Amino acid sequence: VDILQAPFTVNLSPTGCTGALIHPLWVMTSAHCTSQGPRILYAGFGASDRNRCSYYIKGRVIYIYPPFYNDSKDKSSESASTATTHDIALIQLSAPAKLSETVQIINLEEAKWPTGKNRNCTLAGYGGCYTQDALLNVGKLLATEDCNCVTKLGLLCAYWLEGHKPAQGDAGAVLVCDNKGAAVLSQDLGTSFCNDKKQAMTDKAAGEGCDVNNTIYLFSHIQHNLDWIQEISHYNKANKLQRNNIKYYDMFMSLQTSSLLLIFLSHLY
């Protein structure tokens, strides 16, 4: 589709993930796209084809909500280990994005999810199943808090309706409901997960999820993480490290300085 249908969409290179511009200096994506990936990230803008971005801006700092790591290690119940409700990262850009017809900001939804309501939403991303498709695609999803056996506060799930089926490369894309960003794509599970977890994981490993209609797409609810998002993007100085609040990565540091910082962080946490 044309970038004009989702001008807030950002291509994150070289991770292969998708992001969303929420402020001229800030991009939102999934934490798992940045937590173990390369230290140098570039945000590409204005692209209907991720290989032909209008321009790139280097990332300066990545902020990852610490509960993301706690969720990832949570083995207290099977449902808790299936997804993280804090799979959100914020990337501060080294320079502000130049807004235009093809580069726009997506406003975030601050209201709570309507109780018991299913909503028709859209998801735009650069993902593909079996081909190296680098084109921007948009799919329609039915989003809800009722995620069957996968139950956790702050988790949303969605079912494919029509258009593009979310796939590898769409992680970090923002689910848009009523023209506002409501959630960030974390992962997908087969609906058989609730009855046969082993088979569901086997299907996912085989890449069959792209062709199976019975797939649950799991999202981190933005409103559930909104206080942290606002604190980091609006009030926090990029060079300030706050204990128990952020994970901090400065992409402009030398390798030696980076090593010292990682040692410092290991003592903090």
Automatic annotation (TrEMBL):
Signal peptide: none annotated. It comes from the Eukaryota. One of its GO terms (molecular function) is serine-type endopeptidase activity. Residues 1-234 form the Peptidase S1 domain. GO terms for biological process: proteolysis. It holds the Pfam family Trypsin. Belongs to the peptidase S1 family. CLIP subfamily. This is Putative trypsin-like serine protease.
